Amino acid sequence: MSTQTPVAPLAPTEEVTAQRPAIRAVVAGGIGSFVEWFDYSIYALFAGYFATQFFPSENRTAAMLATFGIFAVGFLARPVGAWFFGRVSDRYGRRQTLVISVILISASSLIIGLCPTAASIGLWAGIVLLLARLLQGLAMGGEHASAPCYLVEQAPSNRRALFASAYSTMSIAGSLAGAALGLLLTSQLTTAQMTEFGWRIPFVIGAALGLAGLFVRRFAHEAELPSEVTANPLRTIWMQHRRSFLRVIPIAGAMSLAYWTLLGAFPEMAIAAGVSSSQAFAANTVGLLVMMMLLPVFAMASDRFGRRKVLGGGLLAQAVVVVPALFVLETNPSLVILIQIVVAIPAAAIEGALYATLVEKFPARLRGVGMGLSMALGVALLGGTSPLVQTAMTNIGIPLWGFGLYVLTVLLLAGFLAVRMPETAHKPLRTV
Fold first, then answer.
1. 182 assigned to some structural domain
2. Which domain holds residue 295?
3. Distance, CA of 50 to chain centre
4. Alpha helices, DSSP H only, in 382-430?
5. Tens digit of pLDDT for each residue in 149-200?
6. Measured between alpha carbons, how far is residue 353 from residues 99, 104, 154, 255, 403 in Å?
7. Residue 17 lies in a domain
8. Is position 170 within any domain?
9. Which among 142, 181, 167 is positioned nearest to 38, based on CA atoms?
10. Number of structural domains in the chain
């Protein structure tokens, strides 16, 4: 007669050990997002200080347009990076791409921080800025093609949005760190000092953060590789997953457009509306903190009640508040903190459900290219051009709330698509 040995319950130390891989996966997947959004935030936040350092200072408006134009060009490099690194991610694993992308992010930030000014090297300053942004854009495409996939693939089936929300939470933390650093620097340095050297400090710090991310990702656990490899992933996606691909583009673009309009570039708009630099950065810090705290809550709601309700509801709610928020900013800028809190709530709902939703739209063998490229196109076309569009509209006399109508239109379209898409929250990941 056979006997069975009773299985002893896990000791507390064993339970803790079992949780450690999940914690390491969340940190490894999210650290690049922290560095990415720290870098992008400081570019938007400090553009007013370094624009005339890279371009002729006689015409500040032209220098700002050129600076934000290069900002947009960096986003346009994302689809190329998403396609290339997405193929690497799908074929050789997510970790390889995670390591490469964080190295490139760190290098591009250091190049910007140490680049000589136009007064020293003339037009080459603008060219170096352009090349650094292109490098950063390629890296960001790789980041989007691997990090959310990595997080979702590491997650339990009923916690996919919660795990994926680490990507958004860390991005908000990066933006928050950029805003807090802006508050610190602008409160300690004069405008002349900020223009002369203060703007360089955040970019050098960003490079150091990238090196820390490299250390974490080198030891990340690799997700299981797909059992099959697609020779021509773009053709396969277009033939078999075209509807999902085309749906992701405006949804991801709307998220990016709304985020940059209402949070990322908000301090610059608030300062233009008459708010002091310190007050603008303080309000932005409060808004980002509120958003970061609410992200896991909306992610868990998405895991329980479905992607469509949380993501679609967030997009439509943001559409409702965008024009009033910009109108109040322009007419009563003293309410700047309240505005940031109001817009942060629907933004948290959008990002709490977004990444799990997008990853679930594609099978594992196409996930890096499909999710990464479609998201990169949306972010490039709508989010990356938003500072340029807003600056151009302001210069021809269109008020901020007029720009808000443009954002409103995009959000309504994306919200309509989100509420009508197939629900994937409760399906096994391998069946999508």
1. yes
2. 24-221+233-431
3. 22
4. 386-395, 400-420
5. 889 988 888 899 999 999 888 888 887 888 788 878 888 888 888 888 888 8
6. 25, 28, 17, 11, 26
7. no
8. yes
9. 181
10. 1
Say whether pLDDT at 373 is over 80: yes
Tokens matching residue 259: 């985020």
> How does 97-111 read in b/e, with b if 16+ C-beta sit within 10 Å?
bbbbbbbbbbebbbb
B/e letters for 51-88, b = 16+ CB within 10 Å, e = fewer, are bbbbbeeeeeeebbbbbbbbbbbbbbbbbbbbbbbbbb
In this structure, the number of other CB atoms found within 10 A of the CB of residue 17 comes to 11
- H or E element: which one contains 189? none
Question: 306's torsion region: left (phi>0), alpha (psi -120 to 50) or beta?
Answer: left
Write out the two tokens for 284: 């932005």
**Closest to 390 in 3D by CA, of 71, 52, 58, 59:** 71
Nearest to 299 by CA among 165, 99, 115, 138: 165
pLDDT at 382: 87
- Cα distance between residue 171 and residue 291, in whole Å: 11
4 has a pLDDT exceeding 80? no
CA distance 253 to 165: 18
pLDDT the model gives residue 16? 36
One-letter amino acid for residue 106 of the chain: S
Q: 221-230 burial string, b = 16+ CB within 10 Å, else e? A: eebeebeeeb
If one counts every other C-beta atom within 10 angstroms of the C-beta of residue 428, the result is 8
Position 324 in a domain: yes
The number of helices, as runs of H, and strands, as runs of E, in the chain is 19, 0
Helix (H, G, I), strand (E, B) or coil at 224: coil
Token representation of residue 409: 């239109």
CATH number of the domain where residue 151 is located: 1.20.1250.20
CA distances from 430 to 226, 287, 310, 424 (A): 10, 37, 23, 11
